[in-house]
C-alpha cells in the first residue's frame, strides 16, 4: 500500500530577531527549528550555541536579520552557573561520566581566592567534548571514540567570576567573559586548583552584548501565542546593530549605495555605520579614511524599495 506523501508546511518571508529564553534539554538548533516552524519562516539562524544542558538567552535571526548574526558571536557574555565541588567528570559537566571524587575541604575564603586567580586574561584549554574542529571533524567525535587530541590553550578574558552563594559543596556563581570562553572548563579548573575536582551542573546565559535575559520569551510562551501575534513579537532586522552609529542618507546616496556603489559620505567617522533613508534601514556601510561610504552588508528589503 502506497503512503500518501505528507504536505510540507509552506514557508514565508519573515524578517526580524527573536530574543528566546532557551529551555534545557534542547540544542540551539532544535530551538531554532521549533521557533522557525512556529513562524513558518523560510530562513533562520542563531547567534551562538548553547549546550542542551544550558538555558537562557539565545537570539534567533530570521530572513534578512541572519546577515548580522556574527555581531553577537563576537560579543561578551554573562552566565549564572552551578558548580559541584568534589566530583570531576569526563565532560566537565553533568552529562559526563564520573572520573574521580574527593572530599572537599575548601573554605569560602579558599574559594574566593581561587576565583580571583581565574579573573582577568587567562589561558584556557578547550575541552575535548566541544564542537571545535580538528581536520574537519568535531573534537567531541574524537572524544567519543576515546581519542585525545592535543589542544593549544587560548587566551580569554574573565571580566568577573563571583560567588553568589554556597550550599554544601554546590556553588552558585556568575561569570562575565569574552567570546570563546568555556564555563565548564572554568568549573573544572576551579576544582583542580582547589584540589578536589569539580564540574558544572547548571548553566544559564543572562546577557549577550547589550541584550539581557529579561527581554526574552520562553519557547512555551511563544508557542502559546496566537499565530498572527508571533511575528509581532520580533525585534526589527537592525536590532542587533545598536552598537553601530546611525548614518542617514539622502535619496541619491541611498540609490547609489543600494546598487552596490560607493558614495561620498557628508558626515560620519571611519568605520561601520547603520545606514538609513527616511527611517528605512538599508544595511551596513563602511566609511574609509577618505570619507567614502561603501556597502558592507545590505538588506534585500532596502534594495527592493530603492530600485
From TrEMBL:
One of its GO terms (biological process) is tRNA pseudouridine synthesis. Pfam families: TruB-C_2 (PF09157), TruB_C_2 (PF16198), TruB_N (PF01509). The keyword Isomerase applies. One of its GO terms (molecular function) is RNA binding. Its EC number is 5.4.99.25. Residues 245-299 form the tRNA pseudouridine synthase II TruB subfamily 1 C-terminal domain. Keywords: Isomerase, tRNA processing. Residues 36-183 form the Pseudouridine synthase II N-terminal domain. Residues 184-241 form the tRNA pseudouridylate synthase B C-terminal domain. It is an enzyme of class 5 (isomerase). InterPro entries: PsdUridine_synth_cat_dom_sf, PsdUridine_synth_N, PUA-like_sf, PUA_sf, tRNA_psdUridine_synth_TruB, tRNA_sdUridine_synth_fam1_C, TruB_C. It catalyses: uridine(55) in tRNA = pseudouridine(55) in tRNA. The active site is at residue 51. HAMAP family: TruB_bact. Belongs to the pseudouridine synthase TruB family. Type 1 subfamily. Responsible for synthesis of pseudouridine from uracil-55 in the psi GC loop of transfer RNAs. This is tRNA pseudouridine synthase B. It comes from Zoogloea dura.
